[in-house]
Amino acid sequence: LVTRHSLREAQHIFRILLVEDNLVNQTLAISLLEKRGHIVVVANNGRQALAILGESTSRGFDLVLMDVQMPEMDGFEATAAIREKEKLTRRHISIVAMTAHALKGDEERCLAAGMDGYISKPIRSDELFRVIENHVTAVDPAMPRSLAQQITIETLDANAVLNHLDGDVELLQKLVETFWDDCPRMVSNIRDAMKDESPKALEIAAHAMKGSLSYFGTNSSLQATLKLEKLGQEGTMNGAAELFAELENALSGLKLSLAALRREVGARPS
Ligand code: MN
Fold first, then answer.
1. Which of 72, 192, 217, 223 could form an SS bridge with 45, CB 3.0 to 4.6 Å?
2. 88-118: b or e for each residue (b if 16 or more CB lie within 10 Å)?
3. pLDDT at residue 194 above 60?
4. What is the reported pLDDT for 144?
């Protein structure tokens, strides 16, 4: 059931790139952000963050939470590289530093490096939520942001889903977790097929995605995937890019739909 409450929440959903190498910090930030309905993508260092930002097209991100000290590429270097690329796109993504340094002058250093704000670690929920509100709304209004306008929360049929799982709520939770763990790989297989302009590869990749998505009943991610598979079967890439963008958006919505489903079945008396 999609309630008025969850729809209202959906209007404040942001897509956040969390760049952090510490697993405890990652876990904490993801839990806090997802509890508020935000969609979180994790990068373990600056280099991964650049790769993810380079790949994101239609969806984009509303905010980057950037750890400072990381292996391979630190937060200052990554921020400098992001700002350098933005000179071409004339966009500006909000970057908020997360640093364990309690040194005086650290905030100035973050701002000088091109970051928009700063929170200190250990992460505190109130500070984290405040900084998100402050920085995401400060984004250039010309930028096509506001994921909230594109995102749709679908109502998934909990009974239909559970019927196929012997009514096992724990199994459903496990399935949802496994799906999200594997989802980036499946999406990137589809993306690769498109880069290679290979209908055969598209068919295979979409087929695999379909297999996983079909456990969650009828949903728009599944619809887009079926259409992609059909294109592949027909040996054409015509319209694949649009469908892929549709799939990416639908997956953002599915994340919320599945979270709602998990809350719903989790709250049932056993
Ligand atoms: Mn670190």
1. 72
2. eeebbbbbbbbbebeeeebbebbeebbbbbb
3. yes
4. 44
Ligand 1 center–CA 67 separation, angstroms: 6
Tell me the residues surrounding ligand 1 (ion) with CB < 5 Å. Answer: 21, 67, 69-70
Q: 21 CA distance to ligand 1 centroid (A)?
A: 5
CA 199 remoteness from chain centre: 27
Question: Residue 217 contacts by C-beta under 8 Å, 6 or more apart in sequence?
Answer: 156, 157, 160, 161
Query: What separation in Å is there between the alpha carbon of 137 and the centre of ligand 1?
Result: 26
Comparing C-alpha atoms, which of 217, 252, 229 is closest to residue 58? 252
34 Cα–ligand 1 center, Å: 21
User: 122: cis peptide before it, omega within 30°?
Assistant: yes
Q: Decide if 45 contacts 70 (C-beta within 8 A).
A: yes
How much distance in Å is there from the Cα of 198 to the middle of ligand 1? Answer: 40
Measured CA to CA, the distance from residue 81 to residue 88 in angstroms comes to: 12
Overall pTM > 0.70: no
Q: Ligand 1 mean position to 45 CA, how many Å? A: 8
Binning the chain into helix, strand and coil, the percentages to the nearest 5 are 60, 10, 30
Q: Which residue has the tokens 């496994």?
A: 178
Predicted confidence (pLDDT) at residue 65 exceeds the cutoff of 60? yes
Q: Is the pLDDT of residue 97 over 90?
A: yes
For the stretch 204-255, pLDDT in tens is 999 999 999 999 988 899 999 999 999 999 999 999 998 998 898 888 888 8
